[in-house]
Design a protein that fits this description.
Layout (H helix, E strand, L loop, with lengths): L17 H7 L12 E2 L2 H11 L6 E5 L5 H7 L5 E6 L5 H10 L4 E5 L26 E5 L3 H17 L10 E7 H8 L9 H7 L2 E9 L4 E2 L6 E8 L9 H11 L7 H28 L1
Parallel strand pairs: 2-3, 2-5, 3-4, 5-6
Antiparallel strand pairs: 1-8, 6-9, 7-9
Amino acid sequence: MAASGKLSTSRLPPLPTIREIIKLFRLQAAKQLSQNFLLDLRLTDKIVRKAGNLTNAYVYEVGPGPGGITRSILNADVTELLVVEKDTRFIPGLQMLSDAAPGKLRIVHGDVLTFKVEKAFSESLKRPWEDDPPNVHIIGNLPFSVSTPLIIKWLENISCRDGPFVYGRTQMTLTFQKEVAERLAANTGSKQRSRLSVMAQYLCNVRHIFTIPGQAFVPKPEVDVGVVHFTPLVQPKIEQPFKLVEKVVQNVFQFRRKYCHRGLGEELKRRKSKNEEKEEDDAENYRL
């Protein structure tokens, strides 16, 4: 579990506020990209504190937008901050931050769903999986449209120990719609327990650490936002390939809760039938 970190006394020089940056570059949140800007630096500072002690850390920020969380990360005295932003409109504002923090901020115009972060940082940062988490962190205020596909992708990376997890048990601090955050962290027996709960918790220690009210964002989303912290487990709770676990869990949760055993039963029947077909084929090949 991550300890609460402290923001550094070595801070950025005076800069235009995020609201002023938005006006200066005439930025508007793109509804089709489900963008929502977090302007309150007290809240962005809180997200960064909850990520842990970032002093001298290497941080990968996804979806920095106008740079609110980016500022808070830079103020935490990190060694290097890598941001990947798909929307070119935000690059000039991020470049202003880079100029204010020479050698600290690296900006990549790209898509977080395809970016190869495993090649982004030095090999020297890698730690054995059984050791404490590496000095590499992922932080992001994720657009709602990509948050679930992205966390599923990263969970599979954890299972395979590749992608951002070639460095070791890289910790993540990410935002989701509150309902999704609650599902990710839901305990066994909770009404919020879902496919996401099982997929996340068999691989990670998952904590819904706090909730941000929707009115803190511009434009205001229809829902509140949950901040979730993930620490990959040394040993997964299910010792099976990710795709198999995902398929079984999908079948279990495709029915209403009281009938979910049907999904598991049908998946077991399919697997039994498949195994019987394979045995018949093997027997036929043997006779030939």
